[in-house]
Design a protein that fits this description.
13 strands, about 15% strand
């Protein structure tokens, strides 16, 4: 019983004051950007309906405090002097059937910045306070409406910039990632409970409740599943930040013209003067729902120009950072050149691009048959679609839908990595026939790491603060 009290005390200490008092303290903020045709102000808290009722005058004289949940009401919002601010529709949600799990209202009015600010001011005068960034979602988490990984997915969903990141965030919000973790935890709990049962009967050494062969097989299965999740992090990072693609080659082979083709805009200066591009030029575009970050680099050549030398050094650096390297040539390269480029791009997806085919009488061929090659005319935009297909295939992005489970958070990756280290120690301990108490300890650590992801245990104040501080106000 004392342990349970300690846990409650730690939870209280680790919880922001705004959340602890949230049940009795209504909060309000804009849920939409000003300037549209319609604006929405969200109110949440134990007395949210009463506070909204103070500034609302229904056309039929009915009070919101008498309204049922999930109902819509037409009327006016009045300031503290009784002057009409705007005609509005008010949605009423009663706990626990709301986004936050608390009593809530949403006021829909005209989207003028002045009107929205006046409505918020009227609510504050009536007893609300301005919500902090992410506070609605944080209250939803604290009230059990979603776990921590789902709460993080809300921010990812808002920030989604392409179809792939939208699908991954939607999958996490729907709880597919949480379900994977829940299954792993159930299996771990089964293992832990059997081992701890043995410890309770430690004076009977002949008793063994957990079959070690089965335990090892289960531990290896869990390790395999965790490894699949951690391996998906590279894909997750690429989806969120954009797959980095470096465009490299000699001067005047058409790198900047190619960048403009891929971006569908005149981003880089194009000139027939050698060494025009002296620094990296970077921008993103979308191919088949995936964001690619294209980096045009300075032409690689021998030069005495110190500024151009710095640009060439950066070209090599960007090649190291890229996942895909586009090597642009406009004439048949030597065998040594092919070998050198393959050496520089080792570990990357290298695609050779033979440019300016419109000026060639016959189609050229690269000397290295193993090197994927696309023949284009960046000037005339010939075969650019074929090049985009090659780039997308090189990215090796798996088919993504709303059921896909892909790790995009560094916090999740770190917790899974530590969990995997623990389960590998379990496998090693079972191989060496170590005692059940040592195996059980590593299992508990693994459980702890997995619970950190969903917030299934006491979550430190700084972790919550770091997660929710990046949210927008109103969410």
């Amino acid at each position: 019983m004392s342990k349970q009290k300690d846990k409650i005390s730690q939870t209280v200490l680790s919880t922001p004051l705004s959340i602890l008092s949230g049940g009795g303290e209504p909060i309000c903020s804009l849920a939409t950007q000003p300037g549209g045709a319609i604006g929405v102000i969200r109110v949440s808290g134990e007395k949210a309906i009463e506070v909204t009722d103070k500034v609302f005058h229904g056309v039929r004289g009915k009070h919101l405090t008498d309204a049922k949940g999930n109902t819509l009401h037409y009327g006016e919002i009045l300031d503290k002097e009784g002057n009409t601010i705007d005609d509005v529709l008010v949605s009423v949600f009663r706990a626990p059937h709301s986004y936050t799990g608390e009593n809530s209202t949403e006021i829909s009015c005209h989207g003028s910045a002045y009107i929205l600010n006046q409505v918020v001011k009227a609510l504050i005068d009536a007893g609300c306070r301005q919500a902090q960034p992410g506070e609605y979602t944080q209250r939803a988490y604290m009230n059990g409406k979603m776990d921590l990984s789902q709460a993080e997915a809300v921010a990812d969903l808002i920030a989604a910039s392409n179809r792939a990141t939208h699908q991954v965030a939607l999958s996490q919000l729907k709880g597919h990632f949480s379900s994977e973790l829940s299954l792993l935890r159930e299996q771990l709990l089964k293992m832990t409970s059997l081992l701890e049962l043995e410890l309770d009967f430690s004076d009977h050494e002949e008793l063994e409740f957990a079959d070690r062969t089965e335990l090892k097989a289960l531990a290896e299965t869990i390790h395999h599943k965790i490894k699949l999740l951690t391996d998906s992090f590279e894909t997750g990072k690429a989806l969120k930040k954009g797959v980095p693609v470096a465009i490299v080659g000699k001067t005047n082979v058409g790198k900047s013209t190619l960048l403009n083709c891929l971006l569908h805009e005149e981003k880089a200066i194009v000139s027939n003067i050698h060494g025009t591009t002296r620094d990296v030029i970077e921008d993103t575009t979308e191919i088949k729902g995936v964001t690619f970050r294209f980096i045009d680099t300075a032409g690689i050549r021998h030069t005495e120009d110190q500024i151009e030398k710095l640009g060439i050094e950066r070209a090599y650096q960007k090649m190291d950072e890229a996942a895909i390297v586009l090597w642009v040539v406009d004439e048949q390269p030597m065998v040594e050149e092919c070998a050198e480029m393959q050496r520089l791009a080792k570990g990357k997806h290298l695609i050779a691009i033979f440019n300016k085919i419109d000026s060639k009488e016959t189609e050229p061929k690269l000397l290295n048959d193993e090197l994927p090659t696309v023949f284009i005319s960046a000037k005339l935009k010939q075969n650019i679609t074929a090049l985009e297909e090659a780039i997308y295939e090189a990215a090796d992005i798996p088919e993504i839908n709303e059921n896909s489970v892909i790790i995009t958070s560094a916090r999740h990756y770190e917790a899974l990595t530590h969990a995997d280290e623990s389960i590998l120690r379990v496998i090693e301990a079972l191989d060496f026939g170590l005692s059940g108490d040592l195996v059980s300890e590593d299992l508990r650590i693994c459980l702890h790491q997995l619970a950190d992801i969903t917030g299934g245990q006491i979550t430190p104040h700084e972790v919550l603060g770091n997660i929710f501080k990046h949210f927008c106000i109103g969410k």
